[in-house]
């Protein structure tokens, strides 16, 4: 019989992976020129920008499936740390709507940490 925690883990996986996948598909369609600019402006090598495809396409698919979800969530968490660093510089400034400017990537980071700690649950391919 399914438990509430297994259903919650499934919902977390589907939400985290599904929402991030939209960002990745956008980058596949429109390219990663903006990411490349941010990476090189920070003094990092340009090839690092291509990691966004791993963090926003491959990792979310693994998360949705529950296939090595802990590893995939770690990859996505690192991706979100880089996004926060590159796009916002870890600033705690407010947006024009009153929330933190880093709110979206911060939520993805926290969800990645939660999934890493909880595992994929009963409904994942690996079921851990």
Automatic annotation (TrEMBL):
It is a multi-pass membrane protein. GO terms for cellular component: plasma membrane. This is DoxX family membrane protein. Belongs to the DoxX family. It comes from Sulfurimonas aquatica. Its main location: membrane. Keywords: Cell membrane, Membrane, Transmembrane, Transmembrane helix. InterPro entries: DoxX, DoxX-like_oxidoreductase. The chain crosses the membrane at residues 47-67, 74-94, 106-125. It is found in: Cell membrane. The keyword Transmembrane applies. Pfam families: DoxX.
């Amino acid at each position: 019989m399914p438990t509430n925690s297994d259903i919650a883990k499934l919902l977390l996986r589907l939400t985290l992976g599904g929402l991030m996948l939209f960002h990745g598909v956008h980058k596949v369609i429109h390219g990663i020129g903006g990411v490349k600019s941010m990476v090189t402006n920070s003094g990092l090598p340009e090839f690092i920008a291509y990691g966004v495809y791993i963090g926003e396409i491959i990792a979310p698919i693994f998360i949705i499936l529950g296939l090595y979800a802990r590893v995939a969530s770690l990859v996505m968490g690192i991706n979100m740390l880089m996004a926060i660093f590159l796009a916002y510089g870890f600033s705690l400034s407010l947006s024009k709507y009153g929330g933190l400017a880093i709110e979206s990537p911060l939520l993805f980071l926290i969800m990645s940490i939660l999934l890493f700690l909880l595992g994929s649950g009963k409904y994942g391919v690996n079921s851990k």
